Amino acid sequence: MVIDDEEKLRGLLSRILRTEGFEVYEAADGKSGLKKLAHENVDAVLCDVKLPDVNGVQLVQQIKSSWPLVEIILLTAYGNIPDGVQAIKNGAFDYITKGDDNDKIVPLLHRAIEKAQLQKRVQELEKRVGEKFSFKAISSKSKSIQEAISLAERVAPVDTSVLLTGETGTGKEVFAQAIHQASARAGKSFVALNCSTFSKEILESELFGHKQGAFTGATKDQKGLIEEANGGTLFLDEIGEMPLELQAKLLRVLETSEFIRLGDTKTTKSNFRLIAATNRDLKKESEEHRFRSDLYFRLNIFEVHLPALRERVKDIPLLTEFFVHQFAAKTNKKPPQISAEFMERLQAYHWPGNIRELKNIIERAVILLNGQELTTDQLPADVTAPPVRQQPISAFDLASMEKLHIQRVLNHTRNNKAEAARLLNIGTATLYRKIDEYGL
Ligand SMILES: Nc1ncnc2c1ncn2[C@@H]1O[C@H](COP(=O)(O)OP(=O)(O)OP(=O)(O)O)[C@@H](O)[C@H]1O
């Protein structure tokens, strides 16, 4: 948009820009310029400094406060550099001297528009990421997970630590992301670290960062994740695996918001929110001195427990549909029908790996699919085998244990007895005898 009260000059500039391929709007003063900005999708403004109703330098500030993504180039009077400098301070992209720098206008506009469009794209992506990781994206019909969502939604805007508990694959990281997105820290970084995947030394350096020469191999200064999370959220997965010594250091950071990089002498500040997750019983761990009780009490202020998938069987069809569509799209297939038996098996299975395992099994099934319907043929043996009846057995009853174990191995081999005998390290005849004996 060109804002200039000199009609001739405005018309000339607009014509030049149109021949360059730009779509151009015109305004003769600040007020009509602001009005047009409210209605049109403008990327960049070329604005004269001397307008009848407002000074262009002030107009920059007004435009930026309402449309921060619009880039402005100010046309200043010859030799009036202070105006240009002030315009940049007010948020202008750049300034050029009217009449003098005409050949610079087009390349400068290209750069301004490129920046504006890039920023719009980033904003749109951030919005999409926000939606993807929002609580709304966690679809569920079961009461237990809805309670967890409601708890997490209430704690999200409060800047306190949160402890997410639940078995592996229950969606703890998904919840951590949703809490971050629903907090005031949403625009800032979400930094995740799994405490079980590193040795103590690497974990310490990953968390706290290091100075050059702090240890062999530290060839340059390196920021730690605590520092990277400044202003945002630090998600520590499997915190129960963190060595005791580091737990003490983490507690200190939580209490003071300060830490010292490895090999450094001065402290560094970081303002982050901690969300921790564990699949262990941290209370028990702390009672047995494997987890610091002071850190446990600090983390335990707000706990959200995520139920295992077998405790939310109602959600299996919903999640299955979701993953089937996701993987069909990924493999360029039409979303298949889901046979009743396929769904029954999924609902009967005990899902030790929870949602992650369901997701993997659906991905595999969609890859194996060649017709228009998912059937039990596309399910692995573990899932299709009849469920092992978990009869209450005495820990001392060897026969019950043996029966259960044989049944499990048979399930695993899809009733292939030769393979089961091999795995059990017994003869086939012995296996047949035991099958008979236990009525398997
Ligand atoms: N409600 C959900 N909808 C769709 N996908 C989900 C949902 N919850 C979890 N998932 C998917 O399941 C997988 C496991 O989730 P996530 O990593 O959050 O679990 P976790 O509890 O943090 O696991 P771990 O303890 O092993 O780190 C991920 O691929 C995630 O995208």
UniProtKB/TrEMBL annotation:
InterPro entries: AAA+_ATPase (IPR003593), AAA_lid_NorR (IPR058031), CheY-like_superfamily (IPR011006), Homeodomain-like_sf (IPR009057), HTH_Fis (IPR002197), P-loop_NTPase (IPR027417), Sig_transdc_resp-reg_receiver (IPR001789), Sigma_54_int (IPR002078). GO terms for molecular function: ATP binding; sequence-specific DNA binding. One of its GO terms (biological process) is phosphorelay signal transduction system. Gene3D superfamilies: 1.10.8.60, 3.40.50.2300, Homeodomain-like (1.10.10.60), P-loop containing nucleotide triphosphate hydrolases (3.40.50.300). Keywords: Activator, ATP-binding, DNA-binding, Nucleotide-binding, Phosphoprotein, Transcription, Transcription regulation. Residues 138-367 form the Sigma-54 factor interaction domain. Pfam families: AAA_lid_14, HTH_8, Response_reg, Sigma54_activat. SUPFAM superfamilies: CheY-like (SSF52172), Homeodomain-like (SSF46689), P-loop containing nucleoside triphosphate hydrolases (SSF52540). PROSITE patterns: RESPONSE_REGULATORY, SIGMA54_INTERACT_1, SIGMA54_INTERACT_2, SIGMA54_INTERACT_3, SIGMA54_INTERACT_4. The modification 4-aspartylphosphate is found at residue 48. Residues 1-113 form the Response regulatory domain. This is Sigma-54-dependent Fis family transcriptional regulator.
